[in-house]
Amino acid sequence: MCKQDRWCDSFQPTRPHRPLIIGELTLTLQGVLVLQEATTGKVLWSSANSSTTLIRNPIGRLLDTGNFVIYEEAGDKMINQEDPIWQSFNLMTDTLLPGMKYGKNLVSGAEMRYTSWKSYNNPASGQFSYGIDTRGYPQVILMDGPNIKFRGGPWNGLRYTGFPNLRPNNIYNYTFVMNQKEIYFQYNLINTSSLMRVVLHPNGFIERLLWVDSIQDWHLYLAPYNDQCDNYNVCGSFGSCSIDKSPVCECLKGFEPRYPDLWRVADTSHGCRRTIHLDCGADEGFNKYSNIKLPDTRDSWYNQTMTLGECKKKCKSNCSCTAYTNSNISGAGSGCLLWFGELIDIRTFAEGDTLFIRMPASELDSLKNSKSSSARRIILVMVPIMFLVLIILVSVCLFNRYHRKKHHRQGTLRNELEHDPVSRSGNEELELPLFGLSTLLKATNNFSVNNILGEGGFGLVYKGVLEDGEEIAVKRLAKTSTQGLDEFKNEVISISKLQHRNLVKLLGCCIEGAEKMLIYEYMQNKRLDSFIFDHTQSKLLDWPTRYHIINGIARGLLYLHQDSRLRIVHRDLKVSNILLDANMNPKISDFGTARTFGGNQIEANTNRVVGTYGYMAPEYAGDGIFSIKSDAYSFGVVVLEIVCGEKNRGFVNKENRNNLIGHAWRLHNEGASLQLVAKCLGESIVVSQVLRSIHVGLLCVQRYPEDRPTMTSVILMLGSEGPLPSPKEPGFYVEKSMQDTTRSSSMYDVSSSNELSITTYIGR
Prior knowledge:
By secondary structure, the chain is α+β, with helices and mostly antiparallel strands. It has five domains: about 1-90, Agglutinin, subunit A (Orthogonal Prism); about 95-225, Agglutinin, subunit A; about 230-370, no CATH class; about 410-520, Phosphorylase Kinase, domain 1 (2-Layer Sandwich); about 530-760, Transferase(Phosphotransferase), domain 1. Helices cover about 20% and strands about 25% of the residues. It is built from 14 helices and 42 strands. It has a five-stranded antiparallel sheet, covered by helices on one side. It has a five-stranded antiparallel sheet with strand order 30-31-32-34-33, with helices on both faces. Strands 4, 5, 6 and 7 form a four-stranded antiparallel sheet that branches. Strand 13 (about 140-145) and strand 14 form a beta hairpin. Helix 9 runs antiparallel to helix 14 (about 710-720) and helix 11 (about 630-645) runs antiparallel to helix 13 (about 685-700). The protein is flat, with a radius of gyration of 32 Å. The termini are far apart. It catalyses: L-threonyl-[protein] + ATP = O-phospho-L-threonyl-[protein] + ADP + H(+); L-seryl-[protein] + ATP = O-phospho-L-seryl-[protein] + ADP + H(+).
């Protein structure tokens, strides 16, 4: 009997195409299952692949895995448990359970695919099927009738190349087996108490579902494909799809649109062609293309023992060979995979594979670099010695001229920053590296639109790469931005000497003519809000990661409020101003509105309120009074948003019209705080940490500043298990119509509804 009955409904020995009113399922002495109509005795289905020899005592059993198996029983023992007479896992439906295989038996030729229902009310076979295509190098594909809808790509030793989100985890592991008898893929649960299934829906969508006991329902854990670039061959042959670019399709380097007019109107189905055709010359070679999903392998050849060098030699010796790579990238890499003809269904993403594509000599990267190096050597050798002294003199003159200009720019910088009324420390020496405009032009590809990371009131933010390979983020002040100029000066003054692992690092600035720019370290994972407020990305942040982020933000604020040279109040702390590095470490950014306090000063007021709706403390939004306690209020809002996965501004509870803060306050008083937790967190949560985070968040958003904890207290409360004070009523700020609204100046800005940075002047 199946103990875990939520899996039992996945067992279907057959898929009737017409309703069976009264049926009878019997097990014969040969171990054959027979399904027949009870009234007429007509056989509708039987397990024809069972043994034909006499079985003494066949037993049918439904296992906890959901697999219905038939064994021969001898006494209290079952014979051949590893190879039963028959098992339902060999007849796949629309559901893939742990331990179930999909692939192909190379001996019998039988294919194991799971197939969608015809509709949600009709279990007959539908139009979609998912399995392994063994033509060429095996790869997983989703078929829509006779057409490919999605291609997961070949197995590269670690994962399928088309599944960037298929990563090792603590819930399940996966196995790919390829030998002379069979090719198959299966997954197994690490924790057998968990329940998981993969379902192919009638509309062609695949979902990996995890059972969550706390809500008594299946929860979406992973969707293997979910964007435009996952559609099969969307950019045509030799075209590459990148979801981070607009338009998403572009030709690979060394290729051009086959029909430029159609390409310009977004008809990319005809793909690209070579700029210079191949002629199978001895001087042809290969260019390296990184971070890509490997092309369709149906027209490919593979060898699992060759080295990469042998693979290159094999491809070059065959004029029809288009590209090559390792078939297995685990360890140092091994195996050989060759393509012939056109390369189709390519996309780019950060964790993609490497492909070497055949190119004519004139297009080879290595040859271009070699020619450039040779030319430089010839010039150095042929320069007459008689001009050597002249060159030295010219070099000295240029060197002196450069340093005079540099000192002039430094003087200009000091005049604009150190004597500006925004500065509270004008007598201090600024030690900020200066970047040349030409350096930043080269790093950002002349400020290409493809390098834009964000946009706001300050101006545009670009991604750049310096000559040494270091990635940077460049904030470029808009020439027409008056507010941006103030924020530029304020940000340099506030953050130039701050050093903390939870603050974004300012690497330098550039001031040349009308150009004013700030250069920061580049954050690979961009902004926190792009994860927690996105239905798909939010699944990548489990609870331990979110708790790590909460504590990191708290440590960054503590440094600003207490441990830095001067006490600094950020004044615009929000989720979109938290950046994440490659290891998901949070870093507070955007100090354009920050204010410094000196001596024993603990608060100040202003008639120019700058900040963001939903994050500003009541006393700051209403009266212009700000302090470290107004930052604590913003931190509390951020904590609740991280736990809940919802925005405070724009959240409205259906029952009582409360915003997120009010909703959290009500649930806390009712002892139901866990209802606030984002559903995508599933069973990754640590209940004590979640409840403590919500409690601390509510302490931070209390109405009166004197009731709110300092960041020192916040860190102690988050890291201990002692009792916490009861939070008082939070400050519910009723939003008023503000004038002179400006766009957010966040780095890595993306479209974000219901969030508006404001600047308003309060009369005294």
